[in-house]
Amino acid sequence: MANIKYSVLDLATVIEGYTIVDSFKSSVANAQQAEKLGYTRYWFAEHHNMINVASSATSLLIGHIAGKTSTIRVGSGGIMLPNHSPLVVAEQFGTLESLYPGRIDLGLGRAPGSDQTTAYAIRGENMGAAFHFPEDVASLQHYFAGDHPNGVSAVPGEGLDIPIWILGSSLDSARLAAAQGLPYAFASHFAPAYFLQAIELYRKNFKPSRHLAEPYVIACVNVVAADTDAEAEYLATSLKQLFKGIITGRRQLLPPPVDSMDGIWSVAEQEAAMQMLTYSFFGSKATLQYRLGNFIAQTGIQELMATTHIFDQSARLKSYRLLAEVLNT
């Protein structure tokens, strides 16, 4: 595992009893530690109308974190492109790349990052924008290359080499990433069903491009690391409660851990949540070394991206520190 890259996906999770400002401060502390520990990149995900996710203004948070760090790559995992004009995205990320050269990633997804009512509030009459996702990705590439056919320039943005990633949880995203010769990041941390099939499809159909010579896969997974398996399982009950809220539609701020999930979720809720959490790794360093080693060997991924929902900030920092130690073994 010593050869694999490792990174962080952050949702600026809002924790019960704390504020959004606290979430942003925690993200800064986590990113600064991640940089010291050799993490490759630190990404934020665009979501909307979720009380426990504060990363809705994704490009602003990317700039904030980039300004508080020095070397780690910072980017989006992802920007939901149908929510935005490709020109505006090109300008925003052109600005970020101009401020922090060589450190900005642009990961793109096609989902709304929320419910349909919120999507309509964002997209209005442009609700069919997701169907034009491939064309909008190409439009972004043209803006960065400075050869857009409509005569409009992205300033800043034009002429900048900003890596574009395709994000997804389905086979469609795998096909697009392969056809465009772009790196591919899969959301296996909450949508595991098509993961193995999607990365196989991506590799099989990959067409080398000026951006990428060979397929490159990031798998995002949930990780909770602690000194013992029992402690990790205890800390992970906060994440399980969070997913129960997703299943039931009753979202909540990240709650404190509990001794047992018995009585908190029903059998059906547990089964649904644990299916979504298929690619989750909770445990001590020894346990993670064994389980992650098998996962990496079986999938052949080039990079592991961890998202860690832990109630206590010090325990969260420790989890990322232990993960780095495992992956450097």
UniProtKB/TrEMBL annotation:
GO CC, alphabetical: cytosol
Signal peptide (residue range): none
Domain Luciferase-like: 20-242
Highest taxon of the lineage: Bacteria
Entries under InterPro entries matching the protein: Bact_Lucif_Oxidored (IPR050766), CmoO-like (IPR019949), Luciferase-like_dom (IPR011251), Luciferase-like_sf (IPR036661)
GO function terms (MF aspect): oxidoreductase activity, acting on paired donors, with incorporation or reduction of molecular oxygen
Pfam families: Bac_luciferase (PF00296)
Family to which the UniProt record says this protein belongs: To bacterial alkanal monooxygenase alpha and beta chains.
PANTHER family the record matches: LUCIFERASE-LIKE MONOOXYGENASE
Protein name: Luciferase-like monooxygenase
Lineage: Bacteria, Pseudomonadati, Bacteroidota, Sphingobacteriia, Sphingobacteriales
